């Protein structure tokens, strides 16, 4: 069982003059965690190979002494535990570092922005890019609310949260967006208490009315099967290849049980076996396997020998060999999805479809079409990968239940 340590900068800001937290990365059996040294450095002052800051850093003596002390004490801890046939744990290494940096003293206050940025840095180092982005977006929202003026955690109370909520409402944020921001903020606060950056008794979320954000309702996004057919039959000039791709991605999702764009972009030809699609959903890690609809097979045939196809074995021309890191893959998917949604909006408008078309509309439309044709909620839930009927009920409440609508309207 291996253990290694290394100092790294948390790349929280790409600005040239930005200061980055100096973190100690602990790797035990290929799993890694970060602990803050409570020191910062600009990129230009950081010497990665030497594991210290350069002499041009205004506090280089103080910082380098601390870094050397941390390494020396950790080496002693590792040797001491090794003689006992043991190996330090993540918690033991973190406790030692926090003891040397003052982290084991009375709970200290830490600024709001720094708390977010350190957490984002940790998630980024762990290649949890999507989750890190959620915290980035929440921080950006909070910066807008506070007018770029950082706040001490101890100064934040229920009044702050209530005013922040009002700010989001006034800016026209949907309840789902507000739910993400506020739940992310709450998650970070709990982490701050756990890491002793804030006392346990200072928890403003205790008195915040969170009920309406637990299961926020989304707008009905589904379109009718006749409108799906309009999209499928629309004549698009061959030279408009991006529009053709956008249409194909939408239709493939609809005909493949509402597969989301992230999973669609990750499909490789190896996922197609005997006209069946086999893949693992990235969000839930659930395995899907089903026979492909004839329309989906037609779309696959279009891409089989298409010029400009992915050079990395992907079915659709979205990801290529150059997208070789989790971050580059995620950003590429985001970029393409943004373009696809823009194409779908234009396509929908040209066909007289009033609803705002996005890649997610295909998933809602799939479920609605099944329900309208009498498919049970249980089977709809199974096909969508829901783990309980309750989840399916919530989903159908969001998209509407056409069978119930028809029953009520025909009865009145």
Task: Describe the protein in words.
The protein is mainly alpha-helical. The chain folds into three domains: 98 residues, no CATH class; 103 residues; 187 residues, hpI Integrase, Chain A, CATH 1.10.443. It is built from 16 helices and eight strands. A three-stranded antiparallel beta sheet has the order 1-2-3, with helices on both faces. A three-stranded antiparallel beta sheet has the order 6-7-8, with no helix packed on it. The longest helix has 25 residues. The protein starts with a strand and ends with a helix. 26% of the residues are buried.
Descriptive tags:
mainly alpha; hpI Integrase, Chain A; three-stranded antiparallel beta sheet; 16 helices; about 10% strand
CATH architecture of the largest domain: Orthogonal Bundle
Sheet/helix structural class? mainly alpha
CATH superfamily heading of the largest domain: Intergrase catalytic core
- For the report, how would you describe the main beta sheet? 3 strands, antiparallel
Average pLDDT level:
86
Q: What is the ordering of alpha helices and beta strands?
A: EEEEEHHHHHHHHHHEEEHHHHHH
Q: How many β-strand stretches?
A: 8
Please outline what is shown here.
The protein is mainly alpha-helical and 412 residues long.
Task: Please give the structural blueprint.
Layout: E1 3-9, E2 19-28, E3 31-42, E4 46-47, E5 52-53, H1 60-83, H2 90-100, H3 112-125, H4 129-145, H5 158-170, H6 175-194, H7 211-214, H8 225-233, H9 241-255, H10 261-266, E6 272-273, E7 276-280, E8 287-291, H11 294-304, H12 326-350, H13 359-372, H14 377-384, H15 389-399, H16 402-411
Antiparallel strand pairs: 1-2, 2-3, 4-5, 6-7, 7-8
